[in-house]
Design brief:
- Strand 5 and strand 6 (113-121) form a beta hairpin.
- Helix 1 (5-19) runs antiparallel to helix 2.
- By secondary structure, the chain is α+β, with helices and mostly antiparallel strands.
- It starts with a helix and ends with a helix.
- Strands 2-1-6-5-4-3 form a six-stranded mixed beta sheet.
- The chain is 33% helix and 43% strand.
Length: 132
């Protein structure tokens, strides 16, 4: 059985992200896409627009960790109605700090493009401490 197109889109997005292929990621998102990041740290909040997401948030994930940021996709679930949910594992080093934990993203997909990403983390306090 073929994988659902929305699951495939999410898998391709994770692959492009980890390869640093931001042009491919741009092609997968709408221009007014929003990535919602939980917590109360400098990277949390609503990153509105593709430039804010890619040139702001994603760039800082790598630069603030001296390139150590890694995300491993574990699974993708779809509902067939424009939603996909990813489960992933994140590792990174920042200064003397280290993070290793699970998380996920709820994707909204319209017309085969990602319009909205709601990020979730396993341990909010740990995430806030790491990124602060």
């Amino acid at each position: 059985m073929a994988e659902h197109p929305h699951a495939l889109l999410v898998r391709k997005g994770y692959d492009a992200f980890m390869r640093g292929d931001m042009d491919s990621l741009r092609a997968m998102m709408t221009g007014d896409c929003t990535h919602h990041v939980p917590g109360s740290h400098p990277l949390s909040g609503d990153h509105k627009g593709i430039d804010s997401i890619i040139d702001g948030y994603y760039r800082r994930l790598f630069s603030d960790t001296d390139g150590s940021f890694r995300v491993a996709l574990l699974n993708v679930f779809v509902d067939g109605r424009g939603h996909a949910v990813s489960v992933h594992r994140v590792t990174a080093d920042r200064g003397a700090g280290h993070i290793d934990g699970n998380g996920g993203i709820v994707f909204r997909i319209v017309g085969e493009k990602i319009t909205d990403l709601d990020e979730c983390v396993e341990d909010m306090d740990k995430s806030d401490a790491f990124w602060s």
